[in-house]
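Open question from group meeting: does this chain pack into something compact, or does most of it stay loose? Before anyone orders reagents, we agreed to write out a predicted structure and look at it together. Recording both the input and the output here so the notebook holds the full record.
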Amino acid sequence: MKSEKVLTIGIDIDGTVTSPSSIVPLMNESFGRNLRYEDCFEYNLANVYNITDEEFAIWLDQYGERLYDEAPVHGTADQILRLWHQKHKLVYISAREYRHLDVTLNWFSRYEIPYHEVDLIGSHDKLSSARKWDVDLFLEDRLENALQLSDALEIPVFLFDTPYNQGTLPERIHRVHTWEEVNSMMQSLFPKASYSLRG
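Structure tokens returned:
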């Protein structure tokens, strides 16, 4: 662990930097449903909306650009990431496809969210990318990813609390509810590596 040096922080985008509820209104509009974010009890929204995986893939192919463009920032993610950028290497590792790089970077620019690397891998298996960037810590909303990364890399993972990632967590995975909580926990785990929001 590079406790005396700058941290390399791996960060998921959707549901972590963007609001985890942002996909629901668009899916409701598309499929004529009136579900709430709280109804999304599992990560696979095809099951939640009672459609096939293929139908969801077709939908995401059609609406992905709009979804990524319109997603709101998750709480104070933008403020805290600007603080972290001064001291740490921020590497965004996302299951988004590479063809969505432009809309992703434009969104980052619009909200003044800083980055060092943006790795759109087109897959939920983020382990090889996290290894490639040698991350010290990961921020995620998908439970399966958090379990895999914390176990294989033996690193802390901050898991943003959602209806679809409930369950008992192993010691290295820390459930968090806000970005302020993440920043506070950063100070506990890496005392020399984080900033206070109050400067």
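Observations to bring back to the group:
Strands lie at 8-11, 89-94, 117-120, 137-140, 157-160, 173-176.
The chain has two domains: 8-20+74-189, 23-70.
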